[in-house]
Amino acid sequence: MTTVPGSTQPILALLGPTASGKTAVALELAAQYPIRLISVDSVMIYRGMDIGSAKPGTDVLAEFPHALVDICDPAEPYSVRAFCEDALAAVTAAQAAGMVPLLVGGTMMYFQALLEGLSELPASAPDLRAEVQREAQQLGWPALHAQLQLIDPIVASRVHPNDPQRIGRALEVFRATGRSLSQWQQENLPISPLAGKVVHRFGLWPSSRAHAREAMAGRFDQMLAAGLIDEVSALRARGDLHPALPSIRAVGYRQVWDYLEGRTDVSAMRTLAITATRQLAKRQITWMRGQTTTQFFPTAQRANLLTEMTKIIRAAELSG
């Protein structure tokens, strides 16, 4: 396997909705070329959340290491900004080692921040953070989300009513500056962490809605057969995790958690999880439609996608 000199290294990005086959494409490339896989997945970051995140098995990870997998405990907060810092560090390390960085995943919020940039926000104020936390304990996060809806409906529409990290940060910005988070972002244009680097963007589309629906339902059934309920039961038994955490709110995990809490039966849990997966895929596809600089391929044209990505890798090797 020939490494690629740093001056000629491309960066590859492969995105797509859930169950589209991104990981299989990435692994096929990594088996043949000097690829460094970098996960762009907001659930694979958590240790002990393997089945429900469709995380590659330990044997696969041993042969094809993925950066940004298993880097957090499910109880730990992990921000989009932290992801950008970690992803940039992984890209830099890969290039220093003469490897081609391949960013692969389906968390479009992470891709948006990494490829398009984040607005610089005012420094977090510990006293304001404590004030928001006290209010949340007294009123609940949905009540604070209602406050956010009044001062910043744009951000509120993108934030779940039980998302303490994002609600809290948006309220902190408003209380510290008198300007809403969305206004602050408009006044402070984002800069991509990968600015100045050449990123080749590729994506996978579902070949058809029917195929996508079948793939998502089939994958969740495979997760159940592989022991997803036991995995979530083990997380719940820890005692320090709860449904308001981003980790437990992840699709599949929150539905199984509700089942274990006795709120649903197995059949309803399965239906709700598959529905939530489809809704997630719809949001992913909606975001992807706006990516005019990304070259998309239907899943039925997977071979063509591999060919195009391989051309870039080989061109870089030859130019080196």
Structure write-up:
With 320 residues, this protein is of the alpha/beta class. It folds into two domains: 242 residues, P-loop containing nucleotide triphosphate hydrolases (Rossmann fold), CATH 3.40.50.300; 62 residues, Histone, subunit A (Orthogonal Bundle), CATH 1.10.20.140. It has 15 helices and six strands. A six-stranded parallel β-sheet has the order 3-2-4-1-5-6. α2 links the parallel β2 and β3. The N terminus is likely disordered.
Query: How many strands in all?
Result: 6
CATH structural architecture of the largest domain: 3-Layer(aba) Sandwich
Shape: globular
Distance, first to last CA: 14 Å
Number of domains: 2
Largest sheet: 6 strands, parallel
**Percentage of β-strand residues:** 5-15%
Q: Can you identify the CATH class of the largest domain? A: Alpha Beta
Percent helix range: 40-55%
Indicate the low-confidence ranges by residue numbers.
1-7
CATH fold assignment of the largest domain: Rossmann fold
The CATH homologous superfamily of the largest domain is called P-loop containing nucleotide triphosphate hydrolases
Largest sheet: spatial strand order? 3-2-4-1-5-6
Summing up helix and strand content along with how strands pair, one would put the structural category as alpha/beta
Order of H and E elements: EHEHEHEHHHHHHEHHHHHEH
List keywords for this structure.
320 residues; 6-stranded parallel sheet; Histone, subunit A; alpha/beta
